[in-house]
């Protein structure tokens, strides 16, 4: 316990909540704690926040600052230098933060911790974002797992149950640093080109929004989750990913709240949902143990693969103008909402990598900029999975056919018609492959291929055969 004259710092990162927040909770044992947020645009290098993430962060910080009675001090720059400046101005007793697991943030935090401890300032760090610490889950030979199922079943579940969520922190110990005048707007998080204007119609950013999403999912989506999660127009997805990424809700809270439904719904649905939480864990685990996967193939045999460099096709993919309706629907959903259903992410990812033969990194970068849930661990691991280059990856010969995938998972065409409205009057028989419709059927639906909807940019069969040939030569 500190004295009334001591000053401490609670460093806000991706933990934008009051509930089950270990660093905030621990800091409440001390007096005179200044909450600070630092927009680190130095150490993250090419992984500075994308546009959609900046929009989310801006709005989430506004809501958290309101909860904190506008006591958050905002900074922008290198946290290492910022802490040096703060330490020179204030008599610091302790600094609290919740751990980050990106490679660059780990190195940064080591430097800050050393600087502070050398100045006899206590540093307290906690895991408030993962169910299991990556350092604690290892194989019997003390090496990290590379396959999900044994990681989860032999590693995580055998190691321990996730810790129970903690109570809300008391905020009476927080004080404002009156010498800091930087505002949220000064961080410059919002793009001047307001391409994100529609996002407000789709998201309730912040801790309350996260708790609301969780409750809606538990009530309406968890029952039937295992099968329903693959259908983009069904309600069997939680859409908690951006809330989890920004720490507006803890995975522990989600885990134990879903546990309560094992006797209400099918245990298979609850267990499968929890295994999806574990996939998030696995992505962070891979990033922690194999940090080079951010830019390099985990399976080095793919390093010599000859990717195409057709930038015109890449732009058409980004804009949802490929001529394949399920692809175009997904890419337009992404642009308009900052989100894409997970099944559709796999379909558009496979199409980019295995039909267009474009490097997975080009897709990863676009998702990084456009997704509100853009997460370095999950985004990287997922793209390496669909490309076949990563851990426990889809084999090279698994190529998603966008026509059959659309028929199977959007059988009524609701998803396509919602996001590609120019096809809304086309007979479902041709909805997934408009080029097969007669001129008469197309004109009846007011569709003119090459004018108001594009011809397919590649042939599925030819591109599939080329991909299989190229991959088999590895």
CATH superfamily of the largest domain: DNA Cyclobutane Dipyrimidine Photolyase, subunit A, domain 3
- According to DSSP, the number of beta strands is 5
Spatial separation of the terminal alpha carbons: 61 Å
Listing every helix as H and every strand as E from the N terminus to the C terminus, the arrangement reads: EHEHEHEHEHHHHHHHHHHHHHHHH
Structural class: alpha/beta
Estimated share of beta-strand residues: 5-15%
Low-confidence stretches: none
Shape: globular
Estimate the mean pLDDT confidence. 95
- Sheet with most strands: strand arrangement: 3-2-1-4-5
Main sheet characteristics: 5 strands, parallel
Looking at the structure, the CATH topology of the largest domain is DNA Cyclobutane Dipyrimidine Photolyase, subunit A, domain 3
What CATH first level of the largest domain would be assigned?
Mainly Alpha
Percent in helix = 40-55%
Core attributes:
474 residues; Serine Threonine Protein Phosphatase 5, Tetratricopeptide repeat; Rossmann fold; 5 strands; five-stranded parallel β-sheet; 20 helices; globular; DNA Cyclobutane Dipyrimidine Photolyase, subunit A, domain 3; single chain; alpha/beta
Structure report:
The chain is 45% helix and 6% strand. Helix 4 links the parallel strand 4 and strand 5. Helix 10 packs across helix 15. It is globular and about 80 Å long. The chain has three domains: 122 residues, HUPs (Rossmann fold, 3-Layer(aba) Sandwich); 119 residues, Serine Threonine Protein Phosphatase 5, Tetratricopeptide repeat; 173 residues, Orthogonal Bundle (DNA Cyclobutane Dipyrimidine Photolyase, subunit A, domain 3). It contains 20 helices and five strands. It is an alpha/beta fold and 474 residues long.
